[in-house]
UniProtKB/TrEMBL annotation:
Keyword tags: DNA-binding, Transcription, Transcription regulation
CDD domains in UniProt: HTH_ARSR
InterPro entries hit by this protein: ArsR-like_HTH, HTH_ArsR_DNA-bd_dom, HTH_MetalResp_TranReg, WH-like_DNA-bd_sf, WH_DNA-bd_sf
Keyword DNA-binding (UniProt): yes
SMART domains assigned to the protein according to its UniProt record, in alphabetical order: HTH_ARSR
PANTHER family: TRANSCRIPTIONAL REGULATOR, ARSR FAMILY, TRANSCRIPTIONAL REPRESSOR SDPR
The HTH arsR-type domain, residue ranges: 1-95
Domain of life: Bacteria
Protein name listed in UniProt: ArsR/SmtB family transcription factor
Gene3D superfamilies per record: Winged helix-like DNA-binding domain superfamily/Winged helix DNA-binding domain
Length: 302
């Protein structure tokens, strides 16, 4: 489950703010249970227990099924990520633009793989040939089990401008046939031929529907990812504020007209669990790949 500091996340925060509900979560992490079993375990009446279960279900932490006269509770979340606002004062000018998910310029992918748009799949799924479908530019989500996709990033720097920092963010997750909330994948990010680092995605999430995922997308299909912010500075490369690699901004060739941004999952990765990239109108963040180049004017000598 992916939470942010907004009102939309209040039901989940409220549901977790109670020792009884935390005990219920721990019980359900071991096996699904009916109301009587849970009530006995926590030492409460069935009526009070149901009130707690309703709150957990409203927060999408559990779901319930009817088996005859019994109400069975099942835990649907095994990981909760809370995104705090990331604020960074940057005293530089910037070029900022968005790269549509389907506007990749090179790829080599293996099934399971596919593209999805606002109204349905784009081309046939699990067939890499359709990654060249002319309609791919309308894609809001793409996925592959191993391989890579590359985007050509324009470099708008003028000769009298000095690059100071690059920052981009993108919503990512693993790829599993349909979904698997606990499915590790080592996703490697590269820019301008430099490996920025490898991030291990914890899963391919369908515990709740993505906030912007179209209604046609099946509920047991990947719904959302985690928003990752990568920053390349003079001090190194950082992901969500944590050290990612020793690649610095001086390692990026600022004289090139463009750079190649690559997302890859090699077959040789320790956790070869695929990659899903979410764009506008999909997932939990209504955006494509957001890219920013920070610069300052070079000081002219007399």
């Amino acid at each position: 489950m992916d939470l942010s500091l907004t009102n939309n996340s209040l039901p989940a925060f409220s549901a977790l703010d109670n020792p009884v509900r935390l005990e219920i979560i721990n019980l359900l992490s071991k096996s699904k249970m009916n109301v009587k079993e849970i009530a006995t375990a926590v030492g409460l009446s069935s009526t009070i227990t149901i009130m707690h279960l309703n709150k957990l279900e409203a927060a999408h932490i559990i779901r319930t099924e009817k088996h005859g006269n019994q109400r069975i509770s099942i835990l649907t979340v095994d990981n909760i990520t809370i995104h705090f606002p990331q604020q960074l004062y940057v005293p530089y000018e910037k070029y900022e633009f968005n790269i549509p998910i389907g506007q990749y310029t090179h790829y080599q992918v293996a099934p399971t793989c596919g593209l999805a748009g606002q109204t349905g799949f784009i081309g046939k799924v699990d067939n890499p040939k359709y990654f060249m479908n002319p309609e791919r530019t309308d894609a809001g989500m793409l996925w592959f089990s191993n391989g890579f996709v590359e985007y050509t990033v324009p470099n708008y720097l003028a000769p009298d401008q000095q690059i100071k920092m690059i920052e981009f963010n993108v919503e990512l997750s693993s790829e599993f046939p349909f979904s698997n909330n606990n499915w590790l994948s080592d996703i490697t990010l590269s820019l301008a031929g430099k490996t920025l680092g490898t991030w291990t995605s914890p899963g391919d999430f369908s515990d709740v529907r993505g906030k912007f995922t179209p209604e046609w997308v099946y509920s047991d299909m990947n719904q959302y990812g985690l928003l990752k912010t990568i920053r390349i500075s003079e001090y190194g490369t950082f992901i969500d504020g944590h050290h990612f690699s020793d690649v610095t901004i001086s390692d990026i060739d600022a004289k090139r007209d463009n750079w190649t941004l690559r997302f890859s999952v090699p077959k040789t990765a320790e956790h070869c669990g695929g990659c899903t990239i979410f764009g506008k109108h999909f997932g939990n963040y209504n955006q494509d790949i957001s890219f920013r180049t920070y610069y300052q004017e070079k000081i002219k000598s007399d």
